[in-house]
Amino acid sequence: MFKKARLLGAATVAMIVIGLIFAAFPHPQEAMAGVDNGHYGKKAKYVFFFIGDGMGMPQISSTEIFKGTLDSTNPMNKEKLNFAAFPYQGMQATNSANTFITESAAAGTALATGHKTNNDVLGMDPTKSVAFKSMAEMAKEKGMKVGIVTSVSLDHATPGAFYAHQATRKNYYEIGQAMVNSGFDYFAGGSLLAPDGAKKDKQNIFELAKQNGYTVVNTKEDILNLNASSGKVIAISPVLAGEEALEYDIDRTSALSLADFTRQGIQLLDNPNGFFMMVEGGKVDWACHANDAATTVRDMMSFEKAIGEALKFYAQHPDETLIVVTGDHETGGMTIGFAGTEYQTFFNKVNKQKVSFEEFDKAINGYRQMMGQGQASLEDWLPYLAEKFGLTELTDYDKSRLSDALAASMTDPKKRNHDPNSYLLYGSYEPFSVTVTHILNQKAGIGWTTYAHTGVAIPVFAQGVGGELFQGYYDNTDVAKKIMNIMGVQYQ
Ligand SMILES: [Zn+2]
Hints:
The structure is a single chain. The protein is an alpha/beta fold and 492 residues long. The chain is built from 18 helices and 14 strands. 43% of the residues lie in helices and 13% in strands. The strands form three sheets. A ten-stranded mixed beta sheet has the order 5-6-4-3-7-1-8-13-2-14, sandwiched between helices. A two-stranded antiparallel sheet has the order 9-12. It is globular and about 65 Å long. Bound molecules: zinc ion. Zinc ion binds next to helix 4.
């Protein structure tokens, strides 16, 4: 009896001691919750947020295998992307407030503000009446400098989510107004879709920018001369492709790439109060919508180079910098594996493609105007397909698909019937062009399921201050909350 009581006493003392230890050192899950609620002690002075639009795991894995074929005779060679080697990795669910398959406005809003909204709504709640504050706006209020860089137009959904609040992402003029009223320090990449308004009856956005103290530059020399004393700058690529975007990297004639705009931004933004910089690889998404793998992996490599510029800065400031890399959703339902190639892949075939689908479309358009319907022949195109796509071994089935698609491409684009069957084959793309990339990609062992987005979870990669918070599987809105926390601004 006595002995038992003594044992109980010892157990009670042990429990009290353990309890005290737990009080002093909270359970790991409680610590994580505290961190997410704004109690993370250390703050990052420099924050980089890289968003690959349309970048899911298939885009990353494909680029790693593709890069491996470039400089190796070993067919099993692959090259890990720089950000895939970051020490902390997690996953985010991407669904919007109203669909499991999100789009860039709702996804951008989640990543920039930490709030879900409906597809097409930018920086506002689903009722389109409440504006959500973005991490970039919070950083600016805190006294940090802010930069927004993208390979597409500056008023597009992803960059817009960091400074604009509109009922629809298509309000390009109003988004442009918000941009020049943001007070942010650096906007760089493409131009604007409607600088004079949809009816071209409004005051020019670039004029408004100058009134608000921005310098607008669009030459290589001016852009490469940007530095810490340049003031507020809007830097537009000297060469623009369709939709006021940078060229696809596979077609690039401009001396300036996304990496150049990122590096110049770092030089301009670096200051004692720190900075926040969002860089979007925006055309990975566009190439995936068109089911064009070669153009996709080339733009992925350009995005990786831009991240390389942040890594150079990180090497100088490892204890003060956070780099987060993620996508907003996957596009195209891209995958590695196709019924026709079973367990094999032939990514070296993708390397033979020399032009994007967009450049190919121009050639098809020229041919249509020259030939008219009825005179088109696949034979005319065989040398082009061999030279620009490396397609030299075509089966009878390939040729039949290509002939049908060429015939469909010879009808006036304005008079095409968009019946469900032709949508399944070609989406809203140039039929001949999308059939060529489908055949080439399938021969390489790459499959596509859609011309839109998909609803799969997306990987998140983090390095630097607070990087450990990005481990686990969470919501896309949590990515924003974690960054805000580490940056020392309050989620609202
Ligand atoms: Zn997107």
